[in-house]
Amino acid sequence: MLDGSGSYVTVPDYPVLDFADSLSIEVWINLAQTINHTIVAKGWCNNADYAYYLEVDTGKIQFMWNTTGSCGSGNNIFRSDSVVIFPYACTHVAVTYSPAGAAIFINGVMVSGSQLSGGVGSIHNSADPMLIGTYKSIN
Predict the structure, then answer these.
(1) Cα–Cα distances in Å, from 50 out to 44, 56, 71, 73?
(2) Looking at the predicted structure, is the pLDDT value of residue 88 above 90?
């Protein structure tokens, strides 16, 4: 169980975790607080090997991906338009990405979302491990 107190999962880099043109991520979450929680991260911004992140930001689901690996360029952000994650509510979250764009599903229902920056493009192929429940080993 990932309890938000330092526990997380590291999945070593494998070619099957590199999604250049499309991907789907599905998780069940149950958070005590809905402010700034990383759910899944592949890559790290500071070493120019950033691929994609899925996080909860003030109750909204946010999916970020990068086309260059660098924080300074290629950033893309898609976020739910409204609060969809509530404290102590077990919630199924799914995010899909394809050349047509990103979509967010909460408990099987697509929710409205907006592209906050960037657009579409191939996701950077990061050599970093996939982290579940943390961003670069940080709670």
Answers:
(1) 5, 18, 7, 11
(2) yes
- d(C-alpha 30, C-alpha 32), whole Å: 7
The two beta strands, 75-80 and 113-117, are antiparallel
Helix (H) / strand (E) element for 28: namely: strand 23-29
How many whole angstroms separate alpha carbon 42 and alpha carbon 127? 9
What would the 3-class secondary structure string for 63-126 be? EEEECCCCCCCCEEEEEECCCCCCCCCCEEEEEEEECCEEEEEECCEEECEEEEECCCCCCCCC
Give the helix/strand (H/E) hosting 130.
Answer: strand 130-132
**pLDDT tier, 139 (very low <50, low <70, confident <90, very high otherwise):** very low
What is the predicted pLDDT for the residue at 135? 66
CA distances from 31 to 4, 56, 136 (A): 8, 10, 20
How far is Cα 96 from Cα 112, in angstroms, rounded to an integer?
13
Length of the chain measured in residues: 139
